[in-house]
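Hey L., structure's done. Input below.
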Amino acid sequence: MLEMEGLEKRYGDTVALDGVSLTVRPGEMFGFVGANGAGKTTTMRIVMGVLGADAGQVRWKGRPLGHDARRRFGYMPEERGLYAKMRVAEQVEYFGRLGGLGAADARRSAEALIERLGLTGRRGDDVDTLSLGNQQRVQLAVALIHDPEVLVLDEPFSGLDPIAVDALAGVLAERAAAGVPVIFSSHQLDLVERLCDSVGIIKAGRMVAMGTVAELRARESRKRLRIVVTGAEPGWADRLPGEIVTKNDRPPLAHPGDQGRYDEVVLVPADDQEALRLASQAGRVQHFGWQEPGLAEIFREVVA
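Output:
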């Protein structure tokens, strides 16, 4: 397991980390989320030895993490750390050699990753001629080239198109299935919710929530109703008892055959039966049911 216990970091009077603790188990994909400046990058830099902690400890396999063990980690920094004038294939192979691979193994592994990440047509191009998304793919290949025992990835999905996102997600899932602990940060909460076994939410340097998405949902005491009504007059939802979370008038995807106004409301109800009565009076009720909060909603509630 990769363990962080009581990590603290200050920059003058600014508290960057305030007792951060978390564990990433073998084969687990851990999503690390928080607002800009919350402490995600600082935590990852301490794990990789780029920064030193003022207090606390990072352990790998039950022992304090040192330089030799870190050489077996795959790290993808938020800022790209590539040689701009080096060709793609040469660069990935070079980092493989730095990671301890022999020349032949580095070449084979580089070619396999370049193909898997959709870079075959750019293998001979200089990195600085690539789009930001393709540079991100190269950075990921560099992190993976030496078959790391742990993956620490800072915003790996940033700037990627949907096809590249799927390719990256598939690679990470394969590594996790092979027993590799994977921790990555992301502002794309839908991806975190879809991919991760566990999630940690950090705010102002402190871990404020952690667990599976199901466990985080269970913490949310405010149950939500989703109500869809057609043919209602404007303003009918304002009479619903409770707090309206979202309200959409005539969403793009209306139900086939429906005519007139189409409203979708998500409500924290004070009285669900009264809400049903008012919705039935307002128009034709197409949907009325409890809705589980997504990770984005949980995040807003936790950091508010």
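The chain has ten helices and 14 strands. Residues 77 and 210 are 23 Å apart (CA to CA).

-- N.
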